[in-house]
Amino acid sequence: MLRRAPLFVPANNEKMVKKSTEIMCDSVVFDLEDAVPPQEKSSARRMLTDFLNRLNWGKRELCVRINPLDSLEGYNDVIWVSREEKIRTVVVPKAQSGVGAVHRATNKALIAIIETAIGLLQAEDIAREDGVEALNYGAGDFAFSVKGSIEEYSTNRHARTQVAIVAKAYGIDALDKVFFKLNDLDAFRSDAITAKALGYDGKFVIHPTQVEIANAVFSPSTEEVSWSQKVVQAYENAIRSNIGAIRLEGQLVDAVNYKVAKDVLERKRQIEELYR
Fold first, then answer.
1. Is the separation of the CB atoms in 9 and 27 below 8 Å?
2. For residue 216, what are the CA distances in angstroms to 202, 222, 268?
3. For 7-217, which CATH class?
4. Domain assignments of the chain as residue spans, ordered by start
5. Pairing with 141, which of 15, 151, 242, 250 sits 20 to 30 Å away (CA)?
C-alpha cells in the first residue's frame, strides 16, 4: 500500500471533498475530528455518504479520521464507517492499546496516530493490534499531552524516531507528522527528507501544495531506479555463478544492497500501477 502523501480533507467541506478526486495523492483522509466543529459532525457523515456514492477517486485509498474512541462522536463514527464499503481505512486519533476493537467492529484497516504520552509508551502494543497497518506520529497533540512545545516536539528526534522504529519492527508503515507552515514549502521538503532518512514511508499533508513534494521525496529518484536496476542484474548474475558479493562501479554490492535495490524497484512498480 502506497501512502506517500495521505491528504487530510475536512469532511464537512463540500468543495474540498470534490477537489480531492483530482489531487494525485495515494490516500485521501476525510477528517471528522479536528476539521469538523461539533455541531457539524452528523451532517458531515451524511454528506460523505452521498459523495462516496457519487464521486470516483480511482485507485486511491479512502480513509476516515474518526473522533477519539472515548467520545460519543467516536462511537457514532465507528458505526457509520462500518457501513461504508468504499472506506478502506480508519485513522484512529490518540491511539492506545485496544485500538484493534475498531478493526473488529468495522472490518477496516487501521492507521493509529501516536499523539499522547501513553500512546508512545504503548506503541509496540498498538502495532500488534488487529488491523493496524501503519503508525503516524502526531506532534501537535503529543506536545499538548506532555504540556510541551509543538515546535520542540515537531523536531524531537526521540519521539519521531521511536514511532518509525516500532512501525518497522512490526512490518507496518511509518507515516510522519503534518507540517503546519503552509507557505514554507522549502522547509516542508526538508522536513520530509528528514522523515525519509529516519525510515518513514510517507508524510501526512494538510494542503494540496504539499502533495507533489511529498510524492517526490518518498518516491525513488531516476538515479535510484537506474542504480537499483544495475544492482539487481549484476547481483543475480553473480549468484548464478555462486558469488555472494561483487564490485560494481567501484562499490561493494552484497545481499543487503540487493534487498534495498529490490525494494526501490517494487516501490516504483507500485507507483506506476496506482496511476496507470
1. no
2. 10, 11, 12
3. alpha beta
4. 7-217, 222-274
5. 15
